[in-house]
Amino acid sequence: MNKNINLSKVVLEDYLNLVKFVEQETERMQNLHTKHITCKKGCSSCCLSFRIFSVEKDIIYKTLLENDIALPLHNENTETTCKYLVNGDCSIYQYRPIMCRTHGFPLLYLNEDEDAYEFSGCELNFSTIDMSEVVIENCIMMDDINKKLFTINETYLADNKIVPNEDELLCNW
Q1: Element at 14 (helix H, strand E)
Q2: Are 140 and 107 in contact, with CB atoms under 8 Å apart?
Q3: Which of 37, 39, 81, 153 is the right S-S partner for 77, CB 3.0 to 4.6 Å?
Q4: What are phi and psi of 106, to 5 degrees?
């Protein structure tokens, strides 16, 4: 995290409100799909290295530092495994990115032509799902969440007068 970064109250509130919304949606999905959700502590097949928006990385890092949680200096696992995965558990579970919060649940994304939805769900959770259960009301609409997160990131970059290249827009996680 760059110590010269300005994390405005608006950006932080917008992000925390989005996290709260995501938590409400995942709880709703957990209740709707209890028979399919097999995620539990120690299941780490989805804990991969990926890219997140700068605003999310900096908010998480700031929160970790404020709570005296050590940041890893390097990924001690493999290049593809999340650096926060320690002995099969997420060491920052309470502060994890939105992508981690939604993984494993039934997700819908608009396809490239924007004329139909595509289902995404953990194959360990939804190996026996009847696809008739996959309706909009029973899934998390990820495009809406991603648009909100993108907008929060745009505000964050503008507040800090950062003209984004790929490394400022998306960061390795």
Answers
A1: helix 9-32
A2: yes
A3: 81
A4: -75, 120
Q: What is the pLDDT of residue 142?
A: 95
- Domain ranges across the chain: 9-40+51-70+97-165
| C-alpha of 91 from chain center | 15
Amino acid at site 28: R
Residue located via tokens 């097999």: 38
Q: Interhelix angle for 9-32 vs 54-66, to 10°?
A: 90
Q: Is 90 exposed, middle or buried (0-12, 13-18, 19+ CB in 10 A)?
A: middle
**Could you read off the pLDDT of 72-128 as tens digits, one per residue?**
654 455 668 888 888 888 888 999 999 999 998 999 999 999 898 888 888 888 777
DSSP type of residue 35: T
Q: Which residues of 61-89 are buried (b: 16+ CB within 10 A; e: fewer)?
A: bbebeeeeeeeeeeeebeeeebbbbeeee
Task: Give the chain's radius of gyration (CA, Å).
Answer: 17
Q: CB count, 10 Å around CB of 123?
A: 7
